[in-house]
Amino acid sequence: MKAIILAAGYATRMYPLTKDRPKSLLPIGTRAVLDFTLDRLATVEELDTVYLVTNSRFFSQFVRWWEEAKSSRPWPWRRFEIVDDGTWDNESRLGAIGDLAFVLDLHGIHDDLIVTAADNIFPFDFSHPVEYFRRIGQDVIVAYELEDPERLRRTGVVQVDSQGRVIDFQEKPSQPASRLAVPPLYVLKADTLELIPAYLEEGNSRDAPGNLIAWLHRRVPMFVWQFHGEVLDIGHLESYVRACQILEGQAKSSQHPLPGLIT
Questions:
Q1: What are the sequence ranges of the domains in the chain?
Q2: Could you read off the pLDDT of 11-38 as tens digits, one per residue?
Q3: If residue 38 lies in a helix (H) or strand (E), which one and from where to where?
């Protein structure tokens, strides 16, 4: 199994904080946002390779981060590769789905795949949805209940049947059809990855990975692994400040509002 971490955005909504550094390398206490994602991936025993895709502007910063991080955090996979997508600004970006396709093609990946974004902090180990994926033998996305309609309008929203199969998915809907929010964490079969070129050839959006899920679920069976807790999405300055307050407060008090986030 392989993993691709999407980290090639320019985070213009967080300027000036992210004008000269990627938001996934912003500090939370003594760690970077990205470190939490790698901790979660490290729980997946069958994961042998992790690709992190970024852009030319921030490539060297990720290389420096990795040189420091790999000596202090003994993550278990055999290979970690930072991929430069060749773009320099928000106008030339490939988009999240474009970057996913770029890495798949560049490295000829034909394995089952974990896809996630580098700017979300999850309250569970990724081994849990991967175990569900293995048990049912179908593509899996994760979801949780979210009450706030405004936040639902800024994320993916899914509807499922009584068996947990996806029957409808909308990315950032103006009128959310359910309260099940879907953050960017998907476990996809190798065969499903073969459909991505067709998605792009049809001229569909290259941005927001949920757009791909909205297209895929109409072509292959897809199921939801539902969790409890809160995902911290570092999408703007206010959410970054809040994540710092929660996680740094948790570290100081030894309380666990987001189970297992501080290791």
A1: 2-253
A2: 888 999 999 999 999 999 888 999 999 9
A3: helix 33-41
